[in-house]
Amino acid sequence: MSIIDPAIAVQRLPRHVAIVMDGNGRWAEARHRPRSFGHHEGVKAVRASVEACIRRHIPTLTLFAFSSENWKRPEEEVGTLMELFMKAMDREVDELVANGVSLRFIGERAAFAAPIRERMDRCEERAPASTRLQLNIAANYGGRWDIVQAARGVARAVAAGELDAARIDESVFDAYTCLADLPPLDLFIRTGGETRVSNFLLWQLAYAELWFSDVLWPDFDAGTLDAALADYARRERRFGGRGASGGAGA
Ligand code: IPE
Ligand code: IPE
Ligand code: MG
After folding, report:
1. Which residues contact 103 (CB under 8 A, 6 or more apart)?
2. Is the pTM of this model over 0.90?
3. pLDDT for residue 8 is more than 90
């Protein structure tokens, strides 16, 4: 069953969806289970969201898996998450590639242990013959980090004489950010009931549509995505202009 009207779906669908996958801990606590159980169940919702994007012909999905601030959590929880990343990469990559998913990791990789970094490299090398979905996993990612690493790239190019500082504008700067080669971010989704950005894609959020849900991440499924897509399809994006219904006048 779908709440999406197939007639409007194609033109009104976002080309790039980003999701803050929040609420794993509370989902587990509500069931009197350890938080790690919530993280494990969250992997199933990742699978569901990837499949739903492929079915809906959404070409780009960016998932917030671990923020640059999540290292603040107790060592035990960080350890659980690291183990889960490794297992997920080992178990899922074959099927993802078979289904036409290209993987990219965004974030500061140096902080991860070698076995994780190696797996990330290997996943990225496994490009499918034809890509149906570009899946970006944000790990040790922060929106401010992305802006700073872009600034570093710009500064390096200027220092090397490859770029004239007077030519730096928004589009030149954008080219140095993590997702520059992909469609602009259209729809930002956050589950788990918090209405904040938590240092996700700051640069890319400028004109994204925001959609917040109380659904806890392990409960996220194709129906939740469809609700977000239906809401998105109803919105008029004006980008500071007057939009289709702006009309003539003074
Ligand atoms: C999101 O769920 C997963 C990560 C941040 C890695 P949380 O672990 O933040 O769950 P809540 O917000 O505490 O319920
Ligand atoms: C954001 O969730 C990060 C991820 C989902 C990976 P958090 O649970 O870390 O965010 P805060 O602490 O509520 O802002
Ligand atoms: Mg949280």
Report:
1. 93, 96, 123, 124, 126, 135, 136, 137
2. yes
3. no
